[in-house]
Design goal:
With 229 residues, this protein is α/β, with parallel strands linked by helices. Helices cover 48% and strands 13% of the residues. The protein is globular and about 50 Å long.
């Protein structure tokens, strides 16, 4: 799969290093770069990439602001936040804005390349240390979670934990993508979470599907409302 990428970071050395890492990967093409938020939006609008790799703190417009606006304009765009900050509040804000992934600048070359490939395929990627921090927020079931999941809702959540998208879940369970989305919204409400990433973190904290992939990190579509059918 060919992946077109835009990179935005206010540090030229980081941009150059990221570009070199990604351009060494087969099938990855860096089609734009920017040093600030407005430049990132312009590059995304001009190049219409598959993936935007954004710093969290960009001059002019934050990476979260850019994510929110860019994904609203281009729903197929996947955003990977590449940040120096490991605060779970930033992760949640980025995911709620529409980011598909959040990794730290301490990642290795292979980890960065893998993260870009995974978000391009529609998965959500969160650094394992951040998954653990997120999981702590749901280490105790909220009041909403006392309403147990139905058997079908549990099946859907288990497949989300394994990294399947709505269409793939529908094929597995014999459901339409729209029906899968309805089940997911019910799951979110019962667990007291807002997105796939948060649902996977909750499942990991509660060990709902031990051995089914929850410990591997958050995966699945990054759109808080689920990926498009």
């Amino acid at each position: 799969m060919s992946v077109r990428v835009v990179i935005a970071d206010d540090h030229a050395v980081v941009r150059e290093g990221t570009r070199q890492i990604l351009e060494r990967q087969p099938g990855v093409e860096v089609v734009g770069e920017a040093a600030d938020g407005p430049g990132a939006l312009a590059a995304i609008r001009g190049a219409r990439p598959d993936v935007a790799v954004l710093d969290l703190r960009l001059p002019g417009r934050s990476g979260i602001d850019v994510t929110r606006e860019a994904t609203a304009e281009q729903p197929s765009l996947r955003v990977l936040i590449l940040s120096a900050y490991d605060d779970e509040d930033y992760v949640i804000a980025a995911v709620q804005a529409g980011a598909s992934g959040y990794v730290l600048k301490t990642v290795t070359e292979d980890e960065l390349a893998s993260a870009v490939g995974r978000v391009a395929r529609g998965e959500a990627v969160v650094a394992p240390t951040l998954v653990h921090k997120l999981a702590e927020r749901w280490s105790r079931p909220p009041a909403a979670a006392r309403d147990p999941l139905t058997e079908r809702e549990s099946q859907v959540l288990a497949l989300v934990v394994q990294g399947l998208r709505n269409r793939e879940i529908g094929e597995e369970l014999g459901l339409s993508p729209r029906t899968v989305e309805v089940h997911l919204k019910n799951v979110y409400g019962k667990l007291g979470v807002r997105s796939r990433t948060q649902a996977v973190a909750y499942a990991s904290a509660q060990r709902l599907f031990a051995g089914a992939g929850a410990a591997a990190g958050a995966s699945g579509g990054g759109d808080p409302a689920g990926p498009p059918p």
